[in-house]
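Example 4.3 (complexes with small molecules)
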Amino acid sequence: MSDTSSACPPAGTVLGDLTMAQLRATVCWAAGSRELAPVCERWLRSAGDGVREGARRVRPGDLAALPQMTREQAMEAARHRLRGRPGHYLVSSGTTGVRAVRALTGRDAFTPGSLGDWRPLRPGDVLLNCLPAGGAYLHTERLADLCGVHTVTAPTDLTALARIAGELREIGVNAVAGLPHTLAVLAEDLLAHGNPLPLRTVLWTGEHLSPGCRAALRELNPRVELWGTYSASETGAVAAAFPGCPPGVLHLWPGQVLELSARGCLLTRAAAPGAARPLLRTALDDRLAAARCTCSRVWPAVRVLGRAGHTVRLRGAELPVDGLRLAAADSAEVTGAQLLAVPADPARPHGPLSRLGLRVQPRPGGAAGPGGAEARAAARVLARHPRLRAVAARHPDAFFAEAAPLALLSYGKVRPVVVVAGAAG
Ligand SMILES: [Zn+2]
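Answer. The structure with zinc ion bound is encoded below.
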């Protein structure tokens, strides 16, 4: 992986494919927001002959004249268009831990036919759903319904699962869905109890599937199929990971256009049957970059670089939180990584830092070696992030690393940054 602190997509890159007919339908949907209605209606009047232009592919200029839809406007448009139809309001804590009602989606959100060959489930499978309550949980239950699959809702206390692994095997559980860190802990727990489930397939979402998470799942079954989605609470699933593609590479679902620039990523999604949620130039919270994939799928490939604008300031250097975490976790010997922030001024816990720590969670029975997993993780981070390397060279005490269990948010995601008191190290 390259230095993600400096990676940035070339301005004006547009990935994906939409027809003018699909964009027109999306603009009509967006006009359900009162604020967006005037500009949407102007665009519809001026955007050529709808009948003749319908099959033409959308060009960047067709999008540039349209407004960006905010989360509130997307919800207002959905409320307007879904009135009288069954739907779900989605409450999520995102990556910040702040719970909010973030979206409204119809219950007939997608059909398996719209997902190409992304088919993790087969009729007769039994799926253990370990996802926290929210959009991904509902999406997974809906997918299972459509595929003829029984589901088991996991208990809130996942440590109880290893104790009922025998019963889960008895009822035929052969698939599991969850956040990557949850899945890794579950796999380690099952192995520790000598009671693995015969898992054929794993569905992951919500976080990066680190090499350590992959290794833990492959210990349960070396041929396990790893299927993933990249999604946000505001947008639902945007891209998908397939078992045969390189780690970290995802394919954009069809019916979407992604505008990549240094300032951020805008997503437009078709309002066609099968679309999960029509969106008009909605800003993603994450930075994405175009990627290349080794498979033959025609859907564009992307990488998720991390949350846009989520940085910490250490002795004058601005550092990307997720870039550092990705580098630290890029080894099968750790399950994941988080940052420890020691603020320069204890009264400003989110202000500039006097010290920055790296915490990695080593995998049980991981390969031993000189310096330990935390020293090797620190070396990876320093090698890939020159700005941090420069700070650490000037102030050797400013950067430290430790090996310990990761602190989680209440619903199971890894907390990206833990603020600690001044004496840590
Ligand atoms: Zn691929």
